[in-house]
UniProtKB/TrEMBL annotation:
PROSITE patterns: HIS_KIN, PAS
Species assigned in the record: Paramagnetospirillum magneticum (strain ATCC 700264 / AMB-1)
Lineage, opening ranks: Bacteria, Pseudomonadati, Pseudomonadota, Alphaproteobacteria, Rhodospirillales
PANTHER family (UniProt xref): PAC DOMAIN-CONTAINING PROTEIN, PHYTOCHROME-LIKE PROTEIN CPH1
Span of domain Histidine kinase: 465-680
Full protein name: histidine kinase
Record keywords: ATP-binding, Cell membrane, Kinase, Membrane, Nucleotide-binding, Phosphoprotein, Transferase, Transmembrane, Transmembrane helix, Two-component regulatory system
Primary localization class, coarse: membrane
Catalytic activity field: ATP + protein L-histidine = ADP + protein N-phospho-L-histidine
Subcellular location: Cell membrane
Membrane topology qualifier: Multi-pass membrane protein
Enzyme Commission identifier(s): 2.7.13.3
Main enzyme class: transferase
Pfam assignment, any one: HATPase_c
Amino acid sequence: MPSGHKSSPLAGLRPRGIWGLSVSLTLLLIILTGIQLQTGYRRTIQTASANLADTARVTEEQVRGSLRVVRLMLRAIAEAPRDDTNALRRFMATRTRIVPEIRQAFIVNADGIVTIATLPQVEGRDTSERSFFRNARELPPARDLFVSEPLPIGQNNSLVIMVSMPLSGPDGQFDGIVAVSLELGYFQTLLQSVHSGEEGAGALLVTPEGDIIDRDPEPELYVGKNIAKGGAFSMHRKAGGTANTFVHVTATDGKEKVSAVRSLSEPALPPLVVIVGRPLDGVLAPWRAEALTMAAVVGTLVIAILGLTALLNRHLVALRASEERYRGLIETQNDLVVRLTPDDRLVFVNEAFARSHGLDAAQAVGRSWRTFVHEEDQPATAQALATALSPPAFRATVECRMTMTCGLRWVSWEGAAIRDMSGNIVEIQAAGRDITEWVEHRDRQAELLRNLDKSNRELEQFAYVASHDLREPLRMISSYLGLLGRRYTALLDEDGRQFMEFARDGAKRMDQMVLDLLEFSRVGRLRDGLGTVSLGEAASIAILNLALPIKESGGTVTVAPDLPEITGARGEMIRLMQNLIGNAVKYRQPGRPLTVTVSAERNHDGWTLTVADNGIGIPPDGFERIFDIFQRLHSRADYEGTGIGLAVCRKIVEHHGGRIWVESVPGEGSRFRFTLPGGQA
């Protein structure tokens, strides 16, 4: 251990030397500030690029999932029997209702003539020159889906997105296409959920040829435009690869932005391009504020340094005298206080230290500190003392065990070097506090955190198994059932065909249950971060998503205008509202117009939200059971679903620190109520 230090460099300085040191320090501060600002600028751009890259990746996955839903639907229609046109038309209509944004589905023969459609009036039309027919016919073998640019359809020429899949005849030759038309809103809600919402930010979905399929915000200004020759799309195409980030001037609004671009890379799907961008001004706003603050702080520090330098000469003698007067402070603290020389000997202990070791203060003075510290903790304590004798801080902290009259105790020490008038280190003063209970609590907490981390890893492994190992056999079962149905249906009697349909339905329901279980496990883990969420906006988006079933039910949904803003996850709040309102629509009372109301009231620590309906109601013995996963009160013949929706609702509410319950009278309706903490009206 060092025996001491020489006098401070300031001790021998004359006024001119002090001024030289002050000016040097000022210049160094300015240079370091400039370096810090430049580093902060680059770091801000890099951080924004990384965040946007993550957002673009999530958006790509969501687009891929949306296209997979349509692809599965088209595949089901393509594989359906065509011997009964009316039955096939009903089958197509049933499948298209799964996605509310689908306007119609139709089958086109190899000559481009519509043969079967959910809207019979389009049957017989010639689509041979339409891009969705031509491009689907020319798809490479590995790809079976084509997504068109927005096309004007119908008498009002409203824009839709055509998604088509080629059909093959028994000889493997092109036999036509099966297609659906999607409203632009199919991707609109998805794009709304991924960008920051700041002015100038946006998200786009673009065809490989550069045609904008959808954009948020202001889709009406940009949908259908081609951006192949400019902006991030062009740079992405030149750079190659499936994921890039750029700082560039956009082709849509001419603003300088930071954008992340990703291309869908799944072989069976079209290589659509996702672009998520933020305005460069918005990205740099925090850095500019930081730069102004740093400039103000540095300017203040420069003035302070120069002012203090001017005062230093006049107050140097007074400062040295002040150091001498304060050397003996804190000698009567209730905490343990000691002073020791650089050669390890105690020169002072307060009464608290002596009493805790069953000694008089005089008996402790002169002993080495090693006498009192547990043998295993002596190396760490010696290192802390060496640190207290070393620049730049001349301070150190350490935790060690000491044998006291009450047993072995943990003590947290904080020590600092003490100098004499010449600047030499003569002693180390340290103050200690008994932290035994805190250490025990810390160890218990660390064990709990390890157990929690282990549990989270097990949950993640379960999600992986569910999404890969469980669904893969289901896909194989469904595929072979489809093959059996196509090849041997004619050989089966009515019971055999019915058994085959039961098996297909069971596989489909099992796959849906796995997907629902995955959705349940992801609540609170893989969604958007916490922020200010308008529950009124969340309810409005949920109603928009449910527009078709609400319209079909003939019901009305009323949202109170005073729903609050809370701190939460926006996507989860939308899902919560959508599940509750969707349940009200599903379980409506036949023969009675459906009414649903969404309202809120303030409570002592937050808000209580209510979604009320006049539906069929719930018996009292089901009030708790309906919130359990996969629990149903009705048969699947009466109502579709897996029983996951309310379990997801409860998990979302509990993830936000609230609780959910139901109040209901069978035959009269139900009131689903849940609490959310904090927030403002």
